[in-house]
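new request in #modeling-help
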Amino acid sequence: MIPSPFLLYLGRSADALGIKTSRGLAEFRREDCLGEFRHDDCPQTLGLPRLTMEEAAAKGARTLVLGIAGAGGRLPDELIADAALALEAGMNVAAGLHERLRDQPKLASLAAERGLELFDVRDPPPNLNVGKGIPRAGHRLLTVGTDCSVGKMYATLALTWALRERGVTADFRATGQTGILIAGGGVPVDAVIADFISGAIEQLAPARPDEGWDLIEGQGSLFHPSFAGVSLGLLHGAQPEALVLCHEPGRAHMRGIAGRSLPGLAECLERNLEAARLTSPEVRAVGICLNTSAMDREAALRLCARTEDHLNLPCTDPIAFGVEAIIDRTLCPAPSAFSTTASN
Amino acid sequence: MIPSPFLLYLGRSADALGIKTSRGLAEFRREDCLGEFRHDDCPQTLGLPRLTMEEAAAKGARTLVLGIAGAGGRLPDELIADAALALEAGMNVAAGLHERLRDQPKLASLAAERGLELFDVRDPPPNLNVGKGIPRAGHRLLTVGTDCSVGKMYATLALTWALRERGVTADFRATGQTGILIAGGGVPVDAVIADFISGAIEQLAPARPDEGWDLIEGQGSLFHPSFAGVSLGLLHGAQPEALVLCHEPGRAHMRGIAGRSLPGLAECLERNLEAARLTSPEVRAVGICLNTSAMDREAALRLCARTEDHLNLPCTDPIAFGVEAIIDRTLCPAPSAFSTTASN
């Protein structure tokens, strides 16, 4: 386990999606977050006290979390320099990038000298096997998306808690760095060797004999040309009984690819159902989650209602409006759910 | 480059598909293959002289190629022991498994002692980027399959040579261990980090300004629950203008998964075209390649003719009957090609 309390790193990030790991910790483990570190030109804040490395260490912060991410998971020089400052101030450092902290000689030697630790959250587990797609016991729900960073993790967490409030055993299965930091475990599926994508998810959510649910955090999108392979292997490995489609209304283009528009909800859902049937022939859609944080409440409610009518599925913003209707649909399948003939 | 001549390893393999790397070298680089190594209980042969490690080294073999593979790419103890014997006899050792030769202390120290080399063909290139799916110049053809090991590499090589015989510049782009050993280069796409599948293929077959063709070897199948993520990322990264569907008639079940049947040709082709359109909206199917090596010639010809009528696409066994009709269709698109309305 990574020692808390945490200092959350924002650096110079001007990209709201780029700090999603820091934001996730600030939202879901706020009691473990002492403050945020940002440079003077960083326009963002998580509403936590702004602290220098020394101030944070003096207040008792145990670990600097480099909770920012760009495509490719590189570790730029400035992050290395700031991580070194954290070590010099006496804090451990955690990151979830493809480039590992421990592979930076400067950081490795500083940590060794001072008896501190480097946590590379994106290390996949060893000894993975290839997936087999053999039917296995248990209830599993997977969130899928029209794009990256549309709220799949938030939706999955909200659904997990809502099931628990109904008295249903439910476990959040994290597949990305933020989810893993929040949950304290999981599989960073985009960091496994390509041959083992579906196998990693079969291992993350193995057969479960009880009546409980595994709620598996989706990644990427079948429609994202960078990451669709990850999304498809995850979908096959999850062998989900239920799919929830996540989307952020108003997004101008696919994350990281200017000019590429997002798929329609019906098309995206249909393609996911079609692909999921390879390992889960009876898979069904149980709801739509919209991230409406950029909309006013009335407009958001109207959009949810319209989407619900259009797709014949419960539609909600899981943070703003809860997920009760989706839980109802998950636990009690409706006969007239979304079908392949829904228009786009 | 891996020094030839080669000694090809068959071990104890009783599985014709399990020795496909050794067989590929025996077929396509026969002049570089001195002999085969097999244990007494191995029922298979490539028709090369059976040699012990010592005999092969004495005849001048420079490298033992561990050209066998099971799902997961593990390196069992017996392979390690046999690789050690090869080193002791004075040969280098090459393998294309996920588990690396160099990570075996015994092999690493033996190689170092004797000034020999270990070649891990499945090492992905460093510094890959994520794919972007941005339109790029050049003609690209990709082979896709109903399953693993159905002849995609053979078909791709045959198409490459046939294009060259027509005077068209054409390059084979290898994506698997066998293809890489034959071509002397390529990207082992199933061994890259999952986030970089499509990016690795964009790097393998970048924009080319000439009128030449890149012929990209496909991997796996969109219908294989172990590997579909690799197949989808490869498809998106390839951004193919032309697809060739490969299939082995009569296969009882998907490779490695008893009881799972293969998809129909029309369904498989349609799903590949649909997915390919994400990065290549004008993609078209140009032919079907059947591996009919287990059928008699007349039955094979009848099956090709029937398949051709059914799918309205040229259909051939690339090894038995050549690929001229597919080349015609590739270079001169027909207006009435396979469409989404073809029955299964």
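bot summary: Residues 139-331 of chain A form a domain with the Rossmann fold fold (CATH 3.40.50.300).
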